[in-house]
Design brief:
The structure is a homodimer.
Chain A: E1 7-12, H1 16-26, E2 32-38, H2 41-51, E3 55-58, H3 68-77, E4 83-88, H4 93-101, E5 106-109, H5 114-125, E6 130-131, H6 133-143, H7 152-162, H8 167-174, H9 178-192, H10 197-206
Parallel strand pairs in A: 1-2, 1-3, 3-4, 4-5, 5-6
Helix pairs in contact in A: 2-3, 3-4, 7-9, 7-10, 8-9, 9-10
The structure holds a DNA duplex.
DNA sequence: GGCGGCATCATCCGATCGGCTATCCGGGTG
DNA sequence: CACCCGGATAGCCGATCGGATGATGCCGCC
């Protein structure tokens, strides 16, 4: 890689220690320059607007308030938007799908080796799609899946379920009837091989379909 | 702080990126030297045995296998054990209590400012107890609590609950009758102000009484 | 020694859940 | 154009849950 112009990177993560660590790790790395940091939606928009980076390294878990998915969508809505590379801990289907849907061009996990991160940042700057192996595998298994795959609507139900709602409340939340919710639940039970709502939540977390609560 | 002898630190975290980031952040910092890294129980014992550090920076989430609590307990069982400073993302009651119980002398969160981390490492080396403000607050509120506090047994029930077990299964797991489980559940509902098992799991996660699944 | 908190166990009963079956509609596919 | 799938809806019924009430034994504490 020629360093005719370095890749300008902004970090978005709500943990100061992680930000500082990432900055120490990638800043100055062959052809990479960290030009800003942010911890939430407001500061991210501000910093990106001010620094106009090539790449945004995005954590999905930003504590309270809008998460990394929302921030990604907002940044992609800006004129001349940066390429967003998600760097997070979890590889649940829901997270991956939403992040890519929001306009992220890459999805790496924090347990990736540093070299992969550096290469990923450079590739992201070029607009290439970068996926961690486990993420790619999950996507492949999703599209070319032989076995039972929960549908998008079912994922929504699973998430409400993990938040502790009853059928009546879920129905209200999803703007459908209780019967429909029960129908979704039945399909979910069958697909996950369980027979209780709590068991479904456990299985969904186990299979990385949803990520629970906190 | 005089640097008559630097504080020798070993990092334990299953994420290479985080380890590298932490090393870049704290190594060389006034009076602090990183002398080793580990990602699991086996490598931690090996590295600590070989380097005999003053402080071990311990993540509680080590992916599969034994967690940071177990590793802490094992390290503390060694002759001339290092002082363990927990550095993690979560501050649930269950995590805090178990970590301190296992012999950790400090508990910081990854969202702490770097300066607090440096100071915490030095304090830990001197054997002083270092607690993040939110952790200290939680402990205080626990002992000097006026309001409803879930008991240890109730926490056990909540954890089984979050794993999706039914009353019958929980009873078998806890070696008690179903009636007892129902009794615990009723108390939990009252204390958490909910009325369903899924709601209890959500509230318990919300209040950081338990941490869910993954 | 009494009092309260915790854990244990037991009923009873109304509310909710979970399984089963069946219908309807819209969108994509052979 | 049939066909299938995902989504939405409905009723029925046995199983489970959640609430109320009450009782026993073991602690630690004043």
């Amino acid at each position: 890689m020629g360093d005719g112009s370095p890749v300008r990177v902004v970090l978005v993560d709500d943990h100061p220690v992680v930000r500082a660590g990432l900055r120490a790790l990638v800043d100055g790395q062959d052809g990479i320059e960290v030009v800003g940091e942010a911890s939430d939606l407001a500061s991210a928009e501000e910093v990106v607007d001010a620094t106009r980076p090539d790449v945004v390294l995005m954590d999905l878990n930003l504590g309270d308030g809008p998460g990394g998915v929302e921030v990604t969508a907002r940044l992609r809505g800006l004129p001349g938007p940066p390429n967003v590379l998600v760097l997070t801990t979890y590889d649940t289907e829901a997270d991956i799908l939403r992040a890519l849907d929001a306009g992220a061009v890459g999805y790496l996990l924090k347990d990736a080796p540093p070299d992969q991160l550096f290469a990923g940042i450079r590739a992201t700057a070029r607009g290439e799609t970068v996926l961690a192996p486990s993420v790619a595998a999950r996507l492949v298994r999703r599209t070319a899946a032989p076995g039972p795959v929960v549908t998008e609507r079912e994922v929504e139900v699973l998430e409400l379920l993990s938040r502790g709602l009853g059928n009546r409340e879920m129905a209200r939340e999803l703007l459908v009837s209780e019967a429909t919710v029960k129908s979704h639940l039945s399909h979910i039970y069958t697909k996950l091989g369980v027979d209780t709502r709590a068991g479904a939540v456990a299985a969904a977390i186990e299979r990385r379909i949803i990520r629970s609560g906190a």
